[in-house]
Write a structure and sequence with these properties.
- This protein is of the alpha/beta class.
- It folds into three domains: 77 residues, Arc Repressor Mutant, subunit A (Orthogonal Bundle), CATH 1.10.10.10; 107 residues, Periplasmic binding protein-like II (D-Maltodextrin-Binding Protein, domain 2, 3-Layer(aba) Sandwich), CATH 3.40.190; 103 residues, D-Maltodextrin-Binding Protein, domain 2 (3-Layer(aba) Sandwich).
- The protein is 43% helix and 22% strand.
- A five-stranded mixed β-sheet has the order 4-3-5-12-6. A three-stranded antiparallel β-sheet has the order 10-7-11, covered by helices on one side. It has a two-stranded antiparallel ribbon with strand order 1-2.
- The radius of gyration is 23 Å and the shape is globular.
- The relative contact order is 0.13.
- It comes from Amycolatopsis methanolica 239.
- One of its GO terms (molecular function) is DNA-binding transcription factor activity.
- InterPro entries: LysR-type_TF (IPR050389), LysR_HTH_N (IPR000847), LysR_subst-bd (IPR005119), WH-like_DNA-bd_sf (IPR036388), WH_DNA-bd_sf (IPR036390), YidZ_PBP2 (IPR037402).
- Belongs to the LysR transcriptional regulatory family.
- Keywords: DNA-binding, Transcription, Transcription regulation.
Amino acid sequence: MARASAVHLVNLDLNLLVVLRELLRERNVTRAAARLGVTQPAVSASLARLRRHFDDDLLVRSGNGYVLSPLAAQLTDQVEAICGATERLFGTGHDFDPGVSGREFTVFMADYTIEVLGSRLSAVLAEQAPGVQLHVRLVREAFARDIGGTIRLIDGLVAPPASRFDLPDVRSVELFTERWVCVVDAANPHVTGDELSLAQLAEMTWVAPFQPDRGFAPAAPMSRQLVLFGIQPRIRVRVESYQAVPHFVAGTDRVALLQERLARRVAPRLGLRVLPCPGDPEPIVERFWWHTDYDGDPAHRWFREVLVSLAAGI
């Protein structure tokens, strides 16, 4: 079986992977050709070969453009992961010059982390590595639960420590610390003082990020704090984003826990109050996690050092 798989790979033109990635990204032959630096007929020919291989149109005409077929949509994440891993594999062991490199880094972050680090990281890459590409994907709990099987395929993940990250082949470095605060609407008639008690939090209704359809998710960072406080929150709004949380607190009697840096940035604009979190909450420690396969990759090492340096200046 192993030999048959190897023969199958030998017979494939792996350059088609690169073409497929750009076609799935651009959903347009002309733009894909421009990104690849080849002619449009060459990409059209590759698309024809890909369609024969998968027995699927991949790009389907819709109005004046194209949309991905169901199979193409299914392939997107796999192609991104495989191309990224292949680039890292063949880049390992070579000197890395960020000033001339076209390396792509794929990183999972929460939207809160993007708020804190995103503009700084973007500016550094533009100045030091203008040809480097960055693919930032929003982290999801489903990915974090399967970190052992997927972190090999990306450059890393920014997230607080969790037991599921305690794996022999996963390493991390601390970036920065943060603390939880409470956010309420400035006109909330039930909050008159400058502090909230745990008893008040237990009675209020909540906006909560990354909660399942049913039940309570103690693995989510905010949920863990409430479990430690002994609070079973009455959740009225669930969102898949930290930055969405304050928008659904504004103008209501709801409450939420939020990272302090994010809370203080949005509070004036949304008419919110930022109050200390009672109950002596745990600090939030954001770390960068990666697979040990990349320890010897000079490009990866450079990227880690950039993140650590940026975080030190927060």
